[in-house]
Amino acid sequence: MDFHKKPVTHVGKVGLKVIDLLKMKRFYEKVIGFEVISEEEDKVSLGVGSKVLVELEVVKGVTPKQGRYAGLYHLAILLPTRESLGKILIHLDQQEIQLGSADHLVSEALYFSDPEGNGIEIYRDRKPEQWNWNNDKVSMAVDPIDARGLVEEARKFPEPWNGLPAETVMGHIHLHVSNLDEAKEFYVDGIGLEVVSNLGAQALFLADQKYHHHIGMNVWNGVGIPALPEKEAGLHYYTLMMENEHRSEIAKNLHSMGIEIVEHNDYWEVKDPSGNFIRLCVYS
After folding, report:
1. Which regions span the lipid bilayer (predicted)?
2. Which of 52, 102, 156, 218 satisfies CB 3.0 to 4.6 Å to 203 for a cystine?
3. Structural domain containing residue 20
4. Pairing of the two strands 119-125 and 71-79
5. Residue 3: inside a domain, yes or no?
6. How far apart (Å, rounded) are the C-alpha atoms in residues 100 and 74?
7. Model pTM?
8. Angstrom distance (rounded) from CA 258 to CA 187
9. CATH code for position 23
């Protein structure tokens, strides 16, 4: 099953408020391998082919993030093969990017940050039939990655790294939230996602249609942290792609919970209880 296509509800793109647009554009283009899809004076949309996955926007008066807030922990770029993860591992090492890594059982992942401190994960999934489920919860771990195996896989294919593959998607988003119980109520009862894993009272992982997670959330920045201020750099919004009927159902759920939805032409916007903006979008 493809967990990032219709009819699955999934993250489409992530919008970031940035300070130095040119520097950030160069990083996402040259280091990560996105293509510039559209560009304005204060906004750059990047992705693969015609598919926008990250939008960088200068917000007037924006300043560097100063404290512990809700917002982005990391955006997670999903590659289609182990070979492609191996190739970008070699490329990032050549670019002297400081990397973290983990084998999560369901996936293999690399971690780093962009020039303004936004967390980034680049990963590949193991096949769903290799995931281990127990009572509707998927087993995940933070084990050492087989970096040598990734490099060996990449070197089976002599073509040099040349940006991200066309099949690349935004695999998931992981958020800092202020209260896990409030976040769970919003995302499960309101949005209709399912809890598929948790780390005690520290983190939750939610998904549609039995993916290992479309949204992660944690309180590692502290319980009760405030929303990211409008004029501080970081997460601007992220989109959730869904069926039109499902969006209408979500709207009813959220209205019944007393949560406001603002309807725009291309999307409906809502804030989660931690102040993270979500754009509810319908498949085109």
Report:
1. none
2. 218
3. 10-282
4. parallel
5. no
6. 13
7. 0.97
8. 14
9. 3.10.180.10
